[in-house]
Structure formats: structure tokens, C-alpha cells
Amino acid sequence: MRYSILTLFPGMIKSYISESIIKKALEKNKIELEIVDIRNFTNLAQNQVDDYQFGGGKGMVLMCDPVVKAIESVRTDSSLVILTTPQGKTWNQNFAREIARKQNHLIIVCGHYEGFDERILNYVDIEISIGDYVLTGGELPALIMLDSITRVLPGVISRESHQQDSFENNLLDYPVYTQPRDFRGHNVPEVLLSGHHANIKQWREQQQLIATFNKRPDLIDESKLSKVQLELLKK
Ligand code: ADE
Description:
Function: Specifically methylates guanosine-37 in various tRNAs.
Number of helices: 9
Distance between the termini: 44 Å
CATH architecture of the largest domain: 3-Layer(aba) Sandwich
Strand order of the largest sheet: 2-1-6-5-7
Largest sheet: 5 strands, parallel
Organism: Entomoplasma ellychniae
Number of domains: 2
Bound molecules: adenine
CATH class of the largest domain: Alpha Beta
Structural class: alpha/beta
Enzyme class: transferase
CATH superfamily of the largest domain: SPOUT methyltransferase, trefoil knot domain
Strand content: 15-25%
Oligomer: single chain
Subunit structure: Homodimer.
């Protein structure tokens, strides 16, 4: 996977990468990453990239010209161009998995806290939000996408680790425990100490369903549950 991140703040991206799983993926040649400074694509004095909005109103708006030129400098026929914005589709594990599987070049344009000229959307394939809150810029959303895609690419972390992730099959992960067996009277469930693999597997599947039902009922489609599963949830 090749990533091109188009940003006004290259340092933010670099500082995260220097400490993360992304760094390992780069070292193992599982990914390529280029960080493109949008300011390199303006012809205006003082590297200007934003301007007042037509019609009046507070705040500076990211201009088309530098952003579109930055996109065009890296885009190929097979690129997918994502723009980070609170108005986009909400990012989730399915997006991460699908992009990891289908794309070979992702361009992420980091939005600007005051907004961007709407005509930039003509050069973008999809707008993505990471949640219903407003951040000061698109760099954190870009890093979140980069991280969540990279960890599901083949060979980056072990396949078992991410197959057990929350949101695989739309279920949360099952609870896990380590030493000690008794922490201040809170005991590790007996089944996990039994060495009985089939029972452990069944318990974990049940716990996934119970955890999802209790914590994220919105993820469960009850019409698709079996009688046994409904019984487990005491429905
Ligand atoms: N830019 C500002 N807020 C954002 C959000 N929630 N998601 C993506 N980009 C953003």
C-alpha cells in the first residue's frame, strides 16, 4: 500500500509515525508513505493557501488551487482520494478492511479547521469523518485511517491478532485476562484455566455476543440471531 498524505502540517504526521506501528510497516516495506506539504503548491506570497469566504463570514477557507495541484502531483489512475471532514461518512473497521484489500494507493487530503472551498470535492472520491465531533484539522483523522488500514495489511501484525479484533463480524472482542488468577477477589473465569479448547472457544464466542449486546446493542441485528443466541441473551 502506498499512502500520500496531503497536509498543511507535515510535522504532525512525521512525529506520530516515528513512534508507531507505521514505522515498523515502513521498515518492513509493507507500506510506502509520502507526506506532501500543500503549501508547496501555492504561487501566492507568504505561501498563502487560504482566503476569506465569499458572502462574508468568519474564518479562512482552504483554496482550491494548491489542494488540487497537490492531489494532481500524486494521483494516478488507481488512486483513491479521501478528504477528511466532519461532514463525511463515518470511518469504521469495514472501511479499513475494504481499503486494505482493494486499494494500492491512498491519497488522504487533510481538511482545514475553518473549511475548504466546496469545489475541491470535484477532485475527491470520498469524504470521511472519524466521528461526530469537530477537530482543528484533518491530521489526526488521517493518522487514524493510516493506522487502522496498515494494521490489517498482510504481514504487518499477526493475522490472529486482528482477526480477534473488535468489530470483526460486527462483534466486540471477548474479554481477556492475565496473571494473577485472583486480583483482590476478582477471579479469572474458570473455563479459561480448564485447558479445554472447545469450551474456551464456545465461551469466547458467547462473551462476544454478550459484550456486544450490553455495550453496543446497535451492532446487533436480532432478526439474524439463532434461538440459542437469543436464549443466551435471555430474550
Ligand atoms: N476534521 C475536523 N473534524 C473532523 C472529523 N471529525 N473527522 C474528519 N475530519 C475532521
